[in-house]
Design a protein that fits this description.
This protein has 368 residues and is α/β, with parallel strands linked by helices. It folds into 3 domains: 95 residues, Beta Barrel (Elongation Factor Tu (Ef-tu), domain 3), CATH 2.40.30; 130 residues, Rossmann fold, CATH 3.40.50.80; 94 residues, Beta-grasp domain (Ubiquitin-like (UB roll)), CATH 3.10.20. The strands form 4 sheets. The protein has a 6-stranded antiparallel sheet, with helices on one face. A 6-stranded parallel sheet has the order 10-9-8-7-11-12, with helices on both faces. Helix 4 crosses helix 5. The longest helix is centred in the middle third of the chain and has 14 residues. The radius of gyration is 21 Å and the shape is globular. The N and C termini lie close together (7 Å).
Length: 368
């Protein structure tokens, strides 16, 4: 994993896995969404389709970090880009939609994320994509990569939007449909359609997804790969449909943009699944240097470490990214949210420090 560390107050350099990107172009996708393209830095920004970068900004005199998926493909796009949808009351999303301009330099943490796959020219895959709103962003990068890397693979995209004018990448998607009529099928589902809309409408449900997949089945291809990203309701519906058809969970990739970690913690508490909150002494090793410090009752390991000005990694602070990943060498923690980790990582003992609280003594964590 990358070593992504919070800057020490006396240190002007954050580390090798941080870099700066200069804004090249800002494209208005919809009334509340922009795509920000960056100049390619030196050295080249290395990323996989579907991954995200974390922006580090200073707004209102405070450092803020937000993670945004790359909408571009390293195989087709000369310049990396992110797409940002405005969130009501969102400090960073509003700033990026309203004030970011070409020439601005933004510090980032290098790409992370498991919402990706490997490509090979001999593959004959069926990529089934279900996206909602800005969830199309990482999926767009994957679709572009499929077309250029796997000439015999096909893509079925179900894309949910609130209205026709809120379809992000509409022109690009239409162009792809025209260019690859035998390889790409797109089904737009509009929740608040105009009177003239003739496509799918209303809430996406399991039967809609199953009907589309049954009518667009490619028996000559390999086992389908499923990717879903967007609001929880859209993703839950998609996964329910995939599993009801009988596909293995290992072929399903999910990317969450939001997690109500506090609500999840309250639910776990009410179910009696969390340990008593006590102040505990722990040891964390970062880049080979060990630190011993107390984690006050109620605080996460990350919060306590940052309070001590320890250079611990972090980005989303909601358990969805892997920037704060560490390996639990001894002891036990309560991990409230583990969506950013794969099953194999969890089995290997990795935890997310931003959503983990000490549940025993003798806790030792190594962050590499």
């Amino acid at each position: 994993m990358f070593n992504l560390f919070k800057k020490k107050k006396e240190d002007n350099k954050r580390g090798d896995h941080y870099m700066s990107l200069k804004v090249r172009e800002v494209v208005k996708e919809t009334s509340d969404t922009v795509t920000i393209y960056f100049e390619q830095p030196e050295p080249y920004l290395d990323y996989k389709p579907g991954q995200y970068i974390s922006l580090i900004l200073e707004l209102g005199g405070k450092e803020v970090r937000r993670s945004y998926s790359l909408c571009t493909s390293p195989f087709t796009d000369p310049h990396p880009g992110i797409t940002v949808k405005r969130v009501k009351g969102g400090l960073v999303s509003n700033y990026l939609n309203e004030q970011i301009r070409p020439g601005k330099t933004i510090e980032i943490m290098k790409p992370l994320g498991h919402f990706t796959t490997e490509f090979h020219s001999k593959n004959k895959n069926h990529f089934v994509m279900v996206a909602g709103g800005s969830g199309i962003t990482p999926i767009m990068g994957i679709i572009k990569s499929v077309f250029v890397n796997e000439p015999e693979s096909k893509v079925t995209l179900i894309y949910c939007s609130r209205s026709e004018d809120q379809i992000i990448f509409k022109k690009q998607l239409d162009a792809f449909e025209s260019k690859y009529p035998d390889r790409l099928k797109i089904f737009h589902n509009i929740s608040q359609p105009s009177s003239g809309w003739t496509g799918l409408k209303g809430r996406l449900d399991v039967e809609k997804v199953k009907t589309i997949l049954n009518e667009n089945n490619y028996p000559g291809l390999d086992t389908p790969k499923f990717f879903t990203c967007g609001p929880d309701g859209v993703m839950d519906t998609a996964i329910s449909a995939f599993e009801s058809i009988g596909f293995n969970k290992k072929s399903i990739f999910k990317e969450s943009f939001f997690s109500d970690i506090h609500a999840k913690e309250e639910t776990l508490k009410s179910e009696g699944k969390l340990s008593p909150e006590l102040t505990r002494e722990i040891e964390v090793t970062v880049e080979g240097q060990s630190y011993s410090f107390e984690v006050p009752a109620g605080k996460t390991i990350l919060e306590a470490g940052l309070d001590k000005d320890i250079n611990m990694p972090y980005s989303c602070q909601s358990g969805l990214c892997t920037a704060c990943r560490g390996k639990l060498i001894s002891g036990k923690v309560d991990m409230i949210e583990d969506a950013g980790l794969s099953e194999s990582e969890i089995a290997a003992g990795y935890i997310l420090c931003c959503s983990s609280k000490p549940a025993s003594s003798d806790i030792k964590i190594v962050i590499e």
